[in-house]
Task: structure prediction
Amino acid sequence: MQLTSPAFKTNAHRAMADAGLQKALGTAKGAFLQRRAAAVAALPEFEALRDIGRDIKNHTLANLDFYLEAFAAKVEAAGGVVHWCSTADEARATVLAICQDAGARTVTKGKSMISEELGINDHLEANGIAPIETDLGEYILQLRHEHPSHIIAPAFHLNREDWEADFRRAHTDLPADRVFAERRDILSEARTRLRAKFLAADVGITGANFLIAETGSSVIVTNEGNGDLTQTLPRVHIALASIEKVVPTLEDATSLLRLLARSATGQDFSVYTTFSTGPKRAPDLDGPAAYHVVLIDNGRSNMMGTEFQEMLRCIRCAACMNHCPVYGAIGGHAYGWVYPGPMGSVLTPSLAGIEKTANLPNASTFCGKCEAVCPVKIPLPKMMRHWREREFERHLTPSSMRRGLGVWGWFAKRPGMYRMATRIGVGALRLLGRGKGAFTSLPLAGGWTEGRDLPVPEGGTFMARYKAKQKQGRGK
Result:
C-alpha cells in the first residue's frame, strides 16, 4: 500500500467535506460506544480483568523469545510448519511460495490486518493467484479497490446505498428489481457469491488474534463464520501473525478474549472463536492437509526495550479509535496506512518511520479517552508525546512552529516576563475585540481561526485569576 500519511492534513480536510463519509461516521460510531459501555457495565470485574490483560502481555513481551520458540515447537510437533520472516518482503515471498507449491489458483482470505500491512493481495495477483476476501466488509472493499478504514469494521466509512451501488456495478447479473433495503439483503448477496469461492479455493489465509505457546494453536474471532470456512475447506491453511500475538497459555488467551469482544463490539464473546492446532489428523472429518504459520517481525523487534514497547500489548479491539474525536471526524483513510486512529498514530511511525508519518502523533486532542478505554491500558497519549519529541529533535516540524515554540520557551523560562507578556496579550486582545465577541481571523493565529472562532478574553490571565482566587480563599 502506498503510504499517504504525509498528506494527512489534506486527507483530513477532504474527509470533513465528504458528506457521505460524515453520514457513515455519525451512524456507526454511536453504536460501538453504546454497546461497549453496556458490556463493560455488565461485567463488574472488567477493571480487574484489564490489569490481568496488561500483565499477561507485559510478561509475554519480557519473555518473547522463549514463548515464540515454545509456540513454534508445539506447531511442528502437531505437524505444522513455522516460517520466521524478518521483513515484509520475506513474508510475501513465503506466502507466495506456499501457494505456488500447492498449485493454487485461488486463495480465500479471512480478515487480516497483517495481510494488509504486507500487501499480500497485490503480491498474489501480480503472480497470477486470485485472492478472494471473505469477510463481508473486506469483500465490498475488494470490489471497490479500497483498503480498510477501521481495524475491526473495514467498511466503517460506507453507507447502505454504497453497498447497493457497488453490488450492482460488480454483479452485473443482478435483476433490476433486486432490493437491498436491509442488512440481511446485503449478507444474502455476498453469501451467494462467496459460497462457490470457498469450495474452489486451494489455499486459505487467515490472520490470528492470538497464538498460544502452550498448545501451538492459532486463534481467530469472527462474527460471520467465514474464518472457519477459510481455514477448514482448502487443502492448505496459512495463518499470518506478527510476533507479539503470542500468549503463554490457554487460560491467558481466554482472559484476553473476555476483554477483546467487549471492547471491540460490545459482545460477551464473538459469534465464532476458533482454535486451530496443526493440520487435519487421521480421525478428523475436515480440515487442511497442511498448516503453515508465518511469523512476521517487520519492525516490531525494534520497538522492544524502547518507550514504544507497550504498543505491542495491543489486541486490535479498535476501542481507541471508536472513542477518538479525531478519528470520529475524519475516518480511517485520512491516516494514510493500515492502522488508523490513536493506535495507528503510535504504531505507524514505529513501523514506517517518523520521517514519513510525523503528522500522525499530532492528530490528537490528548483528551486521554483512548487510554481510558484500552483493554490492556496502553498509554497512547504518552507515546504520541514521545513521537512528537522525536519529530522536534529531528527538525521535522515546520520552521514557523519551531520558532513559535522557541519564543514561548524563552518566556516560559522567565516567569516574570511570561506573566507580563500574557497580561499585555490578553489586554490587547480584549481591546481589539471590543464589541465582537470572537475573532474570525487573527494574525499569527490562522491555524486556529481557519477552523473555529477565537473568543475575546473576558477577564484577566489565568495566573492573575488563580492568584485572586487563592487570596479569596485565605480571606475566608
Observations:
- Residues 399-475 form one domain.
- The CA atoms of residues 465 and 471 lie 10 Å apart.
- The chain has a mean pLDDT of 93.
